[in-house]
Amino acid sequence: IIPIEIFKLTNLKKLYLNINRIKSMPIEICNLVNLEELQLSYTEIVTLPIEINKLLKLKKISFSFTKINNTLLNINNLNNLIFLDLSYISIETVPNDIFNLFNLNILNLIGNKINIIPVDIKNLLNLKELWLMDNKIDKIPIELCNLLNLECLNL
Which has fewest Cβ within 10 Å: 12, 27, 32, 142? Predict the structure, then answer.
């Protein structure tokens, strides 16, 4: 359990909660208005409160090796997000929230069960790195060719 007092640290820019037994994130996370980086890798977290969308300064999020439900990410409003790590979370589809993150530079989806890359990937025009290895992808969509800023493509 995260002490509620943590969420009174309104100047906090980085919150690393990796490698622990956290199962949920309290609504009070929205008080961390200056938060730029949130790491929850190797936790038991399953969902995020919708209030996470109020953390408009967030630039980096890592959920690798969690049990996060990809339909409950609630990150579609985080326009400053440049780095998103959803590696090894056993998702079968790319979350739709991602395709609204127009400033995203790095997207890590390694080690999941994804078999289709949605054509909406073309919306991520600022993407520089796309990590998709160790999935079940059998077809590469032509829309990947619209990502003209892409510097690293790992299939």
Answer: 142
pTM here is: 0.94
pLDDT at 1 over 80: no
> Whose structure tokens read 């995260």?
2
**Token duo for residue 36:** 């730029």
For residue 21, the tally of other CB atoms under 10 A from its CB is 9
129 neighbors 109 (Cβ within 8 angstroms): no
Residue 137 DSSP code: -
Block residue for tokens 């936790």: 43
